Q: What sequence folds into this?
């Protein structure tokens, strides 16, 4: 029953089998989604009893789920109290975007060299699915589910570089998803981001590695600048008021 806190792909969560773990899997997925979407507020504290009641499970599977979420650094444990949802700072967010810019740019370059034609086609099909989202058409949000449903994740996989894949699709991936979902911003950005995805896949399809890298770097860089501009306007500072702005509804979900 004990599985080590997974720090690599979320795929490893599913391959464990057994009734108790199936329940733990379900609770794990539910709590993770609630954290990523902000339904469990960042920084909030919860007892195991509260969570067990909320998710309708006994302590055993709940603890298993919490251990895994702790392994992903989405929760921290508070002795004798329960758990706390991680909270985020502006600085941390910006630092992550700088790292993503370099690493995902490299992933796009390598994907142009190594991604097989059928995977390129699969990625174009994925974008066609994204395009059907009402939120995207109305410019409100651009939500991508995790793993294979996520444009960025698929490009990292397409790079065929195991080191990059471990760095971007492991522990960092889930924290980044949380930031991506909760803190990408502003009018017109969802459609713009979607258009940028299209141009990136076109560069990959035409095997223009240099162009794919440039376009991906620009894509992530403009998302970061968008966030920086937004917070300067909203808060007049770069203080730790991300959550306040989110709570006031000035930030809409838009995955970059
Ligand atoms: Zn994107």
A:
């Amino acid at each position: 029953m004990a599985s080590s806190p997974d720090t690599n792909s979320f795929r490893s969560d599913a391959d464990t089998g057994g009734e108790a773990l199936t329940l733990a899997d379900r609770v794990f997925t539910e709590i993770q989604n609630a954290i990523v979407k902000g339904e469990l507020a960042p920084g909030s504290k919860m007892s195991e009893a509260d969570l067990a009641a909320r998710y309708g499970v006994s302590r055993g599977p709940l603890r298993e789920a919490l251990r895994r979420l702790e392994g992903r650094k989405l929760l921290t444990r508070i002795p004798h109290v329960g758990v706390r949802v991680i909270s985020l700072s502006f600085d941390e967010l910006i630092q992550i975007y700088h790292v993503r810019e370099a690493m995902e740019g490299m992933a796009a370059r390598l994907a142009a060299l190594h991604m097989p034609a059928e995977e390129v086609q699969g990625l174009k099909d994925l974008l066609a699915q994204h395009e059907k989202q009402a939120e995207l058409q109305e410019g409100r949000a651009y939500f991508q589910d995790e793993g294979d449903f996520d444009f960025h994740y698929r490009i990292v996989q397409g790079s065929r570089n195991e080191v990059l894949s471990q760095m971007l699709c492991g522990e960092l991936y889930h924290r980044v998803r949380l930031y991506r979902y909760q803190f990408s911003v502003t009018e017109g950005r969802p459609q713009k981001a979607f258009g940028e995805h299209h141009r990136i896949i076109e560069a990959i399809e035409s095997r223009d590695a240099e162009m794919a890298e440039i376009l991906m770097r620009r894509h992530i860089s403009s998302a970061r600048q968008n966030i920086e501009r937004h917070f300067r306007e909203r808060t007049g500072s770069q203080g730790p008021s991300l959550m306040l702005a989110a709570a006031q509804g000035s930030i809409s979900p838009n995955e970059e």
User: Anything to note?
Assistant: The first strand starts at residue 45 and ends at 46. The chain has a mean pLDDT of 81. Residues 209-235 form the longest helix (27 residues). The radius of gyration is 19 Å.
